[in-house]
C-alpha cells in the first residue's frame, strides 16, 4: 500500500509538472532510501507475507517485499547460510512469458537461461552462446541439490502501464536441464521445472479467466441450469 500510494502521488506531481520519469521507479527509490523493505535477507522457499496468486504490477514491488531481489535479472540466487557449501543456489526466477509448457500444463515450466544472444547491437549476425555462470550456474546447482525455487510468471495485460503483470505461482523443483539451439543460432540452457503438489493455484487461475473472457462457453460446469427457476418461460 505504501508503494502504490507513493507511486500515485508522484504520478500526480509528474502530470502537474510534465515530468517524464517513471513514477514507480521514483517510488521504489524513495522506499529503498528509507529502508521501507520487507524480508531483506534472502531465503529459500516461501516468503513471509507473500501468498501464491499474489499479483505485482511492477518488478520493483517484488524486490521491496523480498520475493525476487533482482530488479532486472530473471534469476535470483544466494549462498546458503549455516551451510558448509560454498556454492550459490537459485532461489527464484521470473518467467518473462517466453516459456513453453508441456501440453499446456501449468504445473510444468520450461525456462530459458540468461545471457547470450547478439554480441553487438550493430551486428545482429554475431551471436554468443549462454555461459554456465551466475544465475545459470545457480540453477544447475539447484537441480543437483533439489532445493525449492520460487517461480513468478508474467502475463500480458495491455490495460496496464507496462503491459504486463507478475503472478507468484509458488514453489517448483528443477528436474532436468539441457542445451539447445535458439532461433538466433546460439546455444542456450533450458531448465524443466515441476510445480510442487498441494499448492493453491496461481497462474492457472489467470489463464482460465482469460480463456473464459475470450470464450464464455469454454467455462465448464453448470452451477444453476436456469437462474430464473422456470419463471421466465424459458431457461436463462
Automatic annotation (TrEMBL):
It holds the Pfam family SAD_SRA. GO terms for cellular component: chromosome; nucleus. Coiled coil: none annotated. One of its GO terms (molecular function) is histone methyltransferase activity. Keywords: Nucleus. The keyword Cytoplasm does not apply. It is found in: Chromosome; Nucleus. Residues 45-195 form the YDG domain. This is YDG domain-containing protein. It comes from Dendrobium nobile (Orchid). The lineage of its organism: Eukaryota, Viridiplantae, Streptophyta, Embryophyta, Tracheophyta.
Amino acid at each position: 500500500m505504501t508503494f502504490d500510494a507513493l507511486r500515485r502521488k508522484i504520478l500526480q506531481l509528474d502530470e502537474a509538472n510534465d515530468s517524464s520519469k517513471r513514477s514507480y521507479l521514483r517510488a521504489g527509490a524513495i522506499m529503498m532510501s528509507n529502508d521501507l523493505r520487507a524480508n531483506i535477507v534472502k531465503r529459500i522457499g516461501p516468503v513471509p507475507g507473500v501468498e501464491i496468486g499474489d499479483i505485482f504490477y511492477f518488478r520493483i514491488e517484488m524486490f521491496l517485499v523480498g520475493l525476487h531481489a533482482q530488479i532486472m535479472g530473471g534469476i535470483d540466487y544466494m549462498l546458503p547460510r549455516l551451510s558448509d557449501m560454498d556454492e550459490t543456489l537459485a532461489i527464484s526466477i521470473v518467467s518473462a512469458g517466453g516459456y513453453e509448457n508441456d501440453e499446456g500444463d501449468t504445473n510444468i515450466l520450461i525456462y530459458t537461461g540468461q545471457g547470450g544472444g547478439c554480441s553487438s547491437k550493430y551486428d545482429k549476425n554475431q551471436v554468443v552462446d549462454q555461459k554456465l555462470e551466475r544465475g545459470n550456474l545457480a540453477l544447475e546447482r539447484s537441480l543437483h541439490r533439489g532445493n525449492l525455487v520460487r517461480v513468478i510468471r508474467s502475463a500480458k495485460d495491455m490495460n496496464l502501464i507496462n503491459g504486463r503483470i507478475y503472478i507468484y505461482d509458488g514453489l517448483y523443483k528443477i528436474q532436468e536441464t539441457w542445451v539447445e539451439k535458439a532461433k538466433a543460432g546460439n546455444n542456450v540452457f533450458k531448465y524443466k521445472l515441476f510445480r510442487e503438489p498441494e499448492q493453491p493455484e496461481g497462474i492457472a487461475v489467470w489463464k482460465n479467466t482469460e480463456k473464459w473472457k475470450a470464450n464464455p462457453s469454454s467455462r465448464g460446469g453448470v452451477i444453476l441450469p436456469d437462474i430464473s427457476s422456470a419463471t421466465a418461460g424459458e431457461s436463462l
